[in-house]
Amino acid sequence: MIELYYAEDDPAIAGNVKEYLEQRGFKVKVFPALGQLREALACRVPAMVLLDWNMPDGQGDSLCRWIRSRWRELPVIFLTVRGDAQDIVEGFASGADDYVAKPFALEVLHSRIQALLRRTKAASDAYLSCGGIFLDQSRRAVFCQSEDIILSAAGYQRLLYLMQNKGRTVTREGILAQVWDVKGSYVNDNTLTVTMKRLRDKLHQPACLKTIRSVGYRMEDRMEDEGI
Predict the structure, then answer these.
(1) Which domains are assigned to the chain?
(2) Smallest Cα–Cα separation from 30: which of 67, 1, 55, 61?
(3) pLDDT at residue 227, as a whole number
(4) Is 35 helix (H, G, I), strand (E, B) or coil?
């Protein structure tokens, strides 16, 4: 299911958009303030952000710039008042990919979302996230709560494999079969235990990386566990 984050402080508009898009297979999380949306982005990256220009705690262009400083290719659509050319110019300057003028038809918004997702699918697939850990496959970069994390090639491959299987238990045997060390040598079970400990230390002991005793490991979003 394609997940969208939507910043909108008008409950009626937000409710209509959420209902319409969810009937068409999207998962929509609504945030009535920019600060709440920013906190959610610090935990997980969605497929797209819908960003209302005027919010109670600021204007959308500031958050868009913050998004672009971390996720250069995350699709962002601005929703702005019809005819406000200055908002549109500033929105694109801050890094938005598209805009939809209010008031808008829900069919039009849906069409623009689909078109942008088609153009940016490869880009959005490059981002993996779990519990505040972000992996940018295009740059082979890892971040934990906005901190740049330097991993060895082997450590990066292990984290990538775990995040690609987020929500599923990965057996130790499965990791050993899929992930090799930097020299192409097979990694034994004892080495895996040591390297997983090092990976946890590098990521500041993340709660989202769980050990399944006598089986393997599992990465789980805490937001999903808590029903956020």
Answers:
(1) 2-125 (3.40.50.2300), 129-226 (1.10.10.10)
(2) 55
(3) 39
(4) helix
